[in-house]
Amino acid sequence: MTSLPRPRAVVARALLTRVAGPDADEARDRIHRTPGPRWFDPASPIARVHGDASMFVAGIRALLLQSLHPQVMTAVADHSGYRSDPWGRLQNTAAFIATTTFGTSEAADEVVAIVRAVHTRVVGTTPEGLRYDASDPHLLSWVHLAGAESFLLAHQRFGRRPLDRAGCDEYVAQAAVAARALGAEDVPTTLDELRSQLTAFRHELRGTDAARDVGRFLLLTPPIPWATRPGYGLIASAGVSLLPRWARHELGLPHASALDPLAQAGGAAITRTIRWALDPLDPVRRPARDTQAATTSAAEPVAVDEPA
């Protein structure tokens, strides 16, 4: 790891180990430094969003929102190691996002093939008798929509430099590339299409016992040391504050909006802290961010949505 003042290095190492595993440095170099063509330019909106510290908040929101689809949630409960190995699951997800966003096209194709192979084994039936299949394009679309909206919404609220409207549309179009590669169909390519498709899923969503159990696990009993729980609490509270009120109600979470400004102030503070810790370790993406700032600093950021 790059030489850092000790407090900064301790925070950076703890974050990297949790998200990317004990071989985080090697994985980062392999993804970012391996030469070859890539799916996306390093200055593109998707690199800007997925490379920002706001992804920590976005991840909590995405998991909670995705859990509201009963078939998706049952698949996770039956086949995922989210309880027995939550950090391993997080690291796999983070590696997929990082590889498809920043890695070579060859590496992206390989990781997509691995995930598609895993999905063929994730089949079953919900307690209500509904069949699920992780390769189902409809279920893949829901997971994609909830994730893409969460990543973009958190970036617009907590990101270093929020995107303008054209940048948001481009992000949605770029995020669709990995979704289609995994087997999702008719995925959105503009912000308006993303909003419309999310609304179309509303009648399928509800807070099952399994979904509420995931919420309690993520928010009340996370498998992290007590010393790190205050910081995690800020991340989690910010993620919840970005959920629409109906989703919070379904999950049995507080859904009054009076405390949202406080939660989002905490989210902004913890995101800045994460960025402070990790920025010196990000030499590959720094030039791209600086270029992006120079070319878009005058653009007007756009709000993605307001929880309702």
Mean pLDDT: 88
Work out the number of β strands: 2
Q: Can you count the helices?
A: 15
* Beta-strand residue fraction: under 5%
- Estimate the helix proportion, in percent: 55-70%
Class per helix and strand makeup:
mainly alpha
Major pleated sheet: 2 strands, antiparallel
Order of helices and strands: HHHHHHHEEHHHHHHHH
Q: Main sheet: which strands, in order across?
A: 1-2
**Termini Cα gap:** 43 Å
How big is the Rg? 18 Å
**Any idea what the shape is?**
globular
Which regions have little confidence, pLDDT < 50, spanning 5+ residues?
287-298
Domain ER-bound oxygenase mpaB/mpaB'/Rubber oxygenase catalytic: 48-276
InterPro entries: MPAB/Lcp_cat_dom
Region (Disordered): 285-308
Protein name: ER-bound oxygenase mpaB/mpaB'/Rubber oxygenase catalytic domain-containing protein
